[in-house]
């Protein structure tokens, strides 16, 4: 055990400013570090930090085919970055292993968002797994036989439990149906990936009205369709005058500009609701507790089922790493928080 702890201290670093998770000599994950391989676990902006620096320095940009296509379509604005990205991108399917000198990298299934992955690095005879942002259930694979597990801590406090999480989808669908009956038009606000997840929920539950969306959401949805995530009957927002009833999907940041004049029903998707699956915040707006992150109980469940020798908790992003570490230590796990307090 002392040997593994010593290896961790020399070979794993999490940088608070760049958000990079560095593993060994070769791998920088979800942030910039001067390594030959940059791994992107998913499309969300806090995991794309420093990508332009990685394009200049790293030899390969690794991710799932869907994540890399989404980056090229919606995250890179200038032609120089797109050209570099096309030259350096290295798509890996789930379970496919990339050998690099005396190490290997494998991407594993993760239900956090479309195209998301976990990573497994094998180097120096040590197996290191990183969850990225994680959601249990669905296709998520719990990594086992690990020497080191690096895990997120977004909802790492026991305050962040959702005992109702199995009923959220039903509440969401019922609220959309109510909005279509009463208003004819429903506006849904959320992040990339979560919006398309809701589109699939609605389609699979018989809601056939047109889906409208602004250009950036439309482009992301079109990429998903190319990867066999079939939404159907979706259109650009400019076509709204062609339809009497529809559901409009917008980025979460636009919710503060929502219409509350009684012409539409607004639905805001957030993971920061822990009392009820749905809550009315004004006469024409509901907040629905739809999260793509593991809550506190799910994080504990993941670690207990994985049963690694050492747990490293990512404290570089928003979350409660120290409360999670305290609970895991109470349960007998050797746990480090990186970066540690004061770094």
From TrEMBL:
InterPro entries: MBL, RibonucZ/Hydroxyglut_hydro. Its cofactor is Zn(2+). One of its GO terms (molecular function) is exonuclease activity. The keyword Endoplasmic reticulum does not apply. This is Exonuclease. Keywords: Exonuclease, Hydrolase, Nuclease. It comes from Thermogladius calderae. The keyword S-adenosyl-L-methionine does not apply.
